[in-house]
């Protein structure tokens, strides 16, 4: 059984829409296989849900080269740092913080080991989960400059939204006391 099927079967009846959406975003995408499964893996890691990471990383390994698998993990890792930093400099009312150099190492963004657009898409998906508007704007702009249509950008956002909702639901179910 695939990891996607395992997660779909684990979802409670009230989350039927999530079950259907998880199947849809992983099987009917206009994204390339690498773009899709890199977004799935990076999004899973961004959720921090062990159950979702385990299930979806097994599926992603079947669809990604070793280099792309590592790059998707790198996108999740670097954006975990960048999203906190850039969201914070954006939220602080003193705009001077946004003009200061970050002084954070981010070399993987310049040399991710996969096509730049694919890596940008994965960073966009993680930024959506982490709620960093500044990073979302930056990655969306780069994707559009590299020829991505708004519909393809939206597909990356849909993957992030569904994977995040599945993780939130399954993690909550794991601690809820039955009524």
From TrEMBL:
It comes from Actinoallomurus spadix. Homotrimer. It is an enzyme of class 1 (oxidoreductase). This is Alkyl hydroperoxide reductase AhpD. The active site is at residues 132, 135. Belongs to the AhpD family. HAMAP family: AhpD. Antioxidant protein with alkyl hydroperoxidase activity. Required for the reduction of the AhpC active site cysteine residues and for the regeneration of the AhpC enzyme activity. Keywords: Antioxidant, Disulfide bond, Oxidoreductase, Peroxidase, Redox-active center. It catalyses: N(6)-[(R)-dihydrolipoyl]-L-lysyl-[lipoyl-carrier protein] + a hydroperoxide = N(6)-[(R)-lipoyl]-L-lysyl-[lipoyl-carrier protein] + an alcohol + H2O. The keyword Disulfide bond applies. It comes from the Bacteria. Residues 98-176 form the Carboxymuconolactone decarboxylase-like domain. Pfam families: CMD. Disulfide bonds join 132-135. Its EC number is 1.11.1.28. InterPro entries: AhpD (IPR004674), AhpD-like (IPR029032), AhpD_core (IPR004675), CMD-like (IPR003779).
